[in-house]
Inverse folding.
């Protein structure tokens, strides 16, 4: 059953808890969304609060995918640039699908919904994101139409002695 996507849902305390639980479950399953396991919802809350503040200020949009039961199964944040010369493209952050739903095409659906959402924003011509090397994520984004446009070797230290490339991917929307 496909996920149902919603852009900018009302942020209730229940949705905040669901986002934290998803982010923690994805991180603890080894997902590269800014943390390394083990993490708790409390570790993640300050990062979520930053996104919520940006959303309240209109700089960031939240895309949520729900499964057939209504549970939050996938998210991505779409962020505008503050730099005046970079307002024609957006960042995509925290792309994640709950581990129990991964591998069924929901990630690709999530990125298609993000591209649709970005196309609906005035003047937006591209989506840019970064991902951690060593996990094959470039292949996932590539299958969604993104091209690798940059790579900083070893920029992400996930553990002492385990440095990963910071890869920049770009999806032109025009
Ligand atoms: C990355 C992620 C969003 C992909 O979502 P998904 O629902 O599992 O992916 P899909 O089922 O839509 O897969 C789409 C394609 O990408 C491939 N793919 C998915 N995850 C991949 C990975 N980690 N490495 C390589 N290829 C991957 C699939 O094999 C599939 O290709 P195919 O059609 O040729 O078989 C999801 O696995 C996830 O949330 N991971 C943890 C969080 C994370 O690391 N996010 C990335 C932040 S940069």
């Amino acid at each position: 059953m496909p996920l149902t996507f919603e852009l900018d849902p009302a942020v209730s305390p229940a949705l905040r808890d669901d986002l934290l639980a998803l982010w923690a479950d994805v991180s603890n399953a080894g997902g590269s969304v800014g943390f390394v396991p083990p993490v708790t919802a409390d570790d993640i809350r300050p990062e979520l609060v930053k996104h919520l503040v940006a959303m309240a200020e209109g700089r960031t949009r939240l895309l949520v995918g729900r499964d057939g039961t209504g549970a939050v199964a996938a998210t991505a944040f779409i962020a505008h640039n503050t730099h005046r010369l970079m307002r024609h493209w957006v960042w995509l952050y925290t792309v994640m699908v709950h581990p129990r739903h991964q591998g069924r095409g929901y990630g690709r659906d999530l990125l298609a919904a993000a591209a649709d959402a970005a196309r609906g924003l005035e003047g937006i011509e591209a989506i840019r994101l970064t991902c951690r090397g060593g996990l094959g994520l470039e292949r996932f984004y590539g299958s969604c139409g993104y091209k690798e446009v940059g790579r900083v070797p070893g920029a992400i230290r996930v553990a002492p002695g385990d440095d990963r490339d910071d890869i920049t991917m770009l999806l032109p929307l025009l």
User: Anything to note?
Assistant: The chain has four helices and seven strands. The chain has a mean pLDDT of 97.
